[in-house]
Amino acid sequence: MAQVVIENPILNSPFEEPQRHFKFTDEGISNEIVEGRRVSSYFVPIPRPKTRGGRKQLVFDTEWTQERIEENKFINQVRERVARWRQGGHVGVAKTTARLLEYWKNPERDRRLFFCQIEAAETAIYISEVAKKYGDAWIENDLRTANDVANPALFRIALKMATGSGKTVVMAMLIAWHTLNKLSDPHNALFGDAFLIVTPGITIRDRLRVLLPSDPQNFYQALDIVPSELRPEMGRAKVLITNFHAFKQREHTPAGKITKQILKQDETGAFTETPEQMVRRVCRELGNKKNVIVINDEAHHCYRRKPDGQEEKLSGDERREAEKREEEARIWISGLEAVQAKIGIRAIYDLSATPFFLRGSGYSEGTLFPWVVSDFSLIDAIESGIVKVPRVPVADDAIVGEQPT
Q1: 170 three-state secondary structure
Q2: Neighbours of 400 (CB within 10 A)
Q3: Which domains does the chain have, with CATH numbers?
Q4: How far are the Cα atoms of 160, 254, 255, 364 from residue 44, in angstroms, in the given order?
């Protein structure tokens, strides 16, 4: 592939919908600028030549050529509907929702929100409050079809955002939107004020403490997500942050190995929590709340293996790594299914920069979750000046002093 040097990749404002983008050609990305927003698409992984063991390795990184780009038609169709609704003034929403949208989009804000953050929240709002009113029930129908295949009994909506573009801010926006609407209209089944935020690890869980209304650095105040007169209301929301490991059913009674074998009743064992007991333990802080809102951070770790999926021939470390990923994904998705069965789930919002099925999932590696509804990719974030610009080191042996540089 011919080398392309782009001195300044920033083409757009981070606060406005992208208006220009760099063109992809058959050789890869070029420095030619095209007017208009880049359509959502993905790069089809291609196999490298077989290794000595006969296995093919997928290539994602440098093979960015036009011929391998596939359009995400569903996402682009949803994006077009949301854009039309935005341009028409956000009609058809609850009074509280309208107040929040106006507040978030105010250009005079001290802390302006990125366009990609507002668009992600707008998309969730449109699907929930507006789409059915204006002939777009097909969006929810398509999502339910996709979920019925991959996540029976769960309704997931995924928001794809590049790392560094502010997914945590979007989580705060979703929590504020649901909470304030629920308090304004307690009988409206669209909204909830109890939230279960699930993360892949303890570090991320601690980083998300800013979503707790009681936290001194909470985003509702620190990033001005909620108007000052409404912030006291956020204290009435129940927000629980946990990592998926908490969904693993624990032993509740100590016993010796032989005793367990003798008294074992089922595959979990007589000394292990039932799914219901696990949910009571994990969700204790939510009290008697029902039909919670779930937010999955780094949600590409949460999926159920495709039952009729193709078996890949893996060996050694790769097989062990795939098995580990599959077990973790099973614990996560099984935990959510148990929560749904015990206390109910109103909606699940997945946030990830890479909402793709992983290797060993039974799906082709790199397949986009079919319930993704919005997309702001890494290259979009680069062109909008949101994330740090990657720089390529260049060898320079020019002698400008006593030694080469």
Answers
A1: helix
A2: 8
A3: 1-71 (no CATH), 73-376 (3.40.50)
A4: 17, 50, 51, 10
